[in-house]
Design goal:
The complex is a heterodimer of chains A (252) and B (198). Chain A has 3 helices and 17 strands. By secondary structure, chain A is mostly beta strands. Chain A folds into 2 domains: 94 residues, no CATH class; 141 residues, L,D-transpeptidase catalytic domain-like, CATH 2.40.440. Chain A starts with a strand and ends in a 7-residue tail after the last strand. Chain B has one domain. Chain B is globular. By secondary structure, chain B is mostly helical. Helices cover 66% and strands 0% of the residues of chain B. Classes of the chains: A mainly beta (252), B mainly alpha (198). At the A-B interface, strand 11 of A face helix 2, helix 3, helix 4, helix 5 and helix 6 of B.
């Protein structure tokens, strides 16, 4: 009978069902509790041996330890069903017993002013921003809802939207330079997709929005990231419910 | 420019949205900005320059494929990683090609033509790109060796586009905010794509 150990607790587990039939249960037994500064845990695929990114609080089921590697199955999120592994030492560090909240976070965005010529120190550029305020729990942050005008991008219409579990690290070259102006910035490669159109709008950090909810207050991103990623909807597909209210001063 | 808008308002004609419209920056201002950018570029790391080059390569591929929104984002982020004349010029060019693509009337037969681009913010948007992309890029091309450098042909084309867009902004400035911007005029200013198909 295959056995495994929850790294954070040391608990020995088996994959036998309560009725004694071998086979995985459907509930996660451990979760990704620690991530790298880019916001992701990279684990090795047992089929391709390629690295596969997992978001914080992804549920896993440890199935055993083979040749010093902890083997586990991903139980939710975009990599659900994948069989991955970490070295035993890394599994102890990165997997743990803290589960996400089983209700989506509440994320509110309220439209504010259109500010022409807002200066971005990080980009050394003046930008025309449709500003808004983001609230999640006790966190209040400035966001821009659109920066790139004249083309196909426009601020998100008022309404309710699902914020989805992030699917993989976004290109570091799009945000890494913000660390020069905000040295404490972490998790900048985590972009949360918003269910709207082709899902190409995100909650993310930066100074330039292509119709996204773009968090300007870089120093708050760590807290916002945790406030979102530590929640999951009942079906595991989303992390938050986004409510956009008010009216943008500039719509196109 | 402000006088034109103010005169129109006094005459009770156009209630222009931007009586204090953005101006095209003068040579002195562009020169000073470009000098600061060139100075700051010296502090960029090898990783910054590599990131910029990777984004420019991605941008060129997207541009050649006609995905101008994507190309614009790539060039714009290349500038933020490590500025170069080429990335500045291409940011401006890709932005207006993307705008043009989205401003074109629906192709379906019998579908009503819609005005996607109005004069309301057009003049300001155009001048922002002139001041921060085209003119800076053209100045950097003259005064620095920040790689990659645009070739003489691309530089000449970009210069012609900038001059054409400057005139276009002047022409639209006194018009009412709801005036539809003629996509053909933007297309004429842009000309053929600056980066050819491979």
């Amino acid at each position: 009978m295959p056995t495994g150990r929850v790294p954070a607790t040391g608990q020995i587990i088996s994959t036998a069902t309560p009725t004694g039939h071998a086979g995985p249960s459907r509930l996660p037994e451990a979760w990704v509790n620690k991530i790298a500064s880019d916001g992701w845990l990279e684990a090795r695929s047992e089929t391709t041996h390629l690295l596969v990114p997992l978001a914080k609080y992804t549920g896993v089921q440890v199935t055993g330890v083979v040749n010093g590697r902890t083997i586990f199955k991903v139980m939710d999120g975009p990599r659900k069903g994948s069989v991955l592994s970490l070295t035993e030492a890394n599994a102890k560090i990165y997997l743990g017993s803290k589960a996400p909240s089983r209700t989506p976070a509440e994320l509110q965005v309220s439209y504010g002013k259109y500010v022409a010529g807002w200066h971005s120190a990080a980009r050394n550029q003046d930008l025309d921003q449709q500003m808004a305020t983001l609230t999640v729990g006790a966190i209040h942050a400035r966001v821009t809802m659109n920066t790139n005008w004249g083309g196909s991008f426009y601020p998100l219409p008022p309404g309710d939207y699902d914020v989805l579990v992030p699917d993989g690290p976004h290109n570091a070259n799009m945000t890494r330079y913000y660390r020069q102006a905000s040295p404490k910035l972490i998790y900048d490669q985590v972009w949360f997709p918003i269910r709207f159109g082709d899902n190409s709008r995100y909650v993310h950090i930066g100074n330039v929005s292509d119709g996204c909810v773009t968090v300007i207050d870089m120093d708050l991103w760590d807290d916002i990231h945790e406030a979102l990623i530590s929640h999951r909807s009942a079906d595991g597909s989303s992390v938050a419910r986004l409510v956009v209210s008010g009216k943008p001063e500039r719509a196109r | 420019m402000r006088l034109v808008a103010a005169a129109a308002l006094l005459a009770g004609g156009c209630a222009c949205a931007d009586a204090l419209a953005r101006e095209v920056a003068g040579d002195k201002e562009i020169h000073a900005k470009a000098a600061l950018i060139a100075k700051s570029a010296r502090h960029r790391t090898r990783a910054d320059r590599m990131a910029a080059r990777a984004l420019i390569a991605q941008g060129d591929a997207a541009y050649r494929a006609g995905r101008f929104d994507e190309a614009h984002s790539d060039y714009d982020n290349a500038v933020a990683n490590a500025p170069s004349a080429y990335a500045y010029i291409m940011t401006g060019d890709a932005h207006w090609r993307a705008a043009l693509a989205s401003a074109r009337p629906p192709a379906a037969a019998g579908e009503a033509s819609t005005c996607r681009l109005q004069r309301l913010h057009f003049v300001d948007d155009l001048r922002l790109d002139l001041n921060q992309q085209y003119l800076i890029g053209l100045r950097l091309a003259q005064t620095t060796a920040l790689a990659p450098l645009p070739g003489p042909a691309l530089r000449a084309r970009a210069k012609a586009s900038a001059a054409c867009f400057t005139r276009l902004a002047q022409d639209y400035e006194p018009l009412p905010p709801q005036t539809c911007v003629d996509p053909a005029r933007i297309a004429r200013c842009l000309g053929k794509p600056l980066v050819g198909a491979s």
